Amino acid sequence: MLPAAADFLPELQFQTSRSSGPGGQNVNKVESRVELRFRLFDSQLLTDEQKQTLLQKLASKLTTEGELLVVAQEDRSQLRNKETALRKFHELLSKALYKPKARRATKPSKGAVRQRLESKKKHGDKKANRGRVDF
């Protein structure tokens, strides 16, 4: 079970910088780009098993120091970019920690098998009746 995004706040570091996104002159003046950094190994909220899973699945997104880096610069507002970064972070962790339900093998019922074979027989008969008609 993954804790809520708000629970991670004490463990997250935010850094702002000037964005290359939309904003006209605003981009040259305001630091609206938000970088979210999460130190995976120092987390108190995740179990060791979860940390190992994240290390394997998010290896390409981790820095050499083991920090997960999420960047948001889509919006002109620093606050909205911060919210976007938090949402991306939570989605990333949720997807990486998701365990699909194990599939149990089942057999088709006898009625379903009989119905399929009857359908195939009808279809075969229909095709067999096509062809030349002699008068």
TrEMBL record:
Q: Where is this region: Disordered?
A: 100-135
UniProt keyword terms in alphabetical order: Hydrolase
Q: Where is the Prokaryotic-type class I peptide chain release factors domain?
A: 11-130
Which regions are flagged for Basic and acidic residues bias?
A: 126-135
The answer to keyword Hydrolase applying to this record is yes
Family annotation (InterPro entries): Pep_chain_release_fac_I
Q: Name one GO molecular function term.
A: translation release factor activity
Transmembrane region positions? none
User: What is the main EC category here?
Assistant: hydrolase
Q: What is its EC number?
A: 3.1.1.29
The GO annotation for biological process reads: rescue of stalled ribosome
Instruction: List the PANTHER family hit by this protein, alphabetically.
Output: PEPTIDYL-TRNA HYDROLASE ARFB
Q: What is this protein called?
A: Aminoacyl-tRNA hydrolase
What species is given as this protein's source? Hymenobacter metallilatus
- Taxonomic placement: Bacteria, Pseudomonadati, Bacteroidota, Cytophagia, Cytophagales
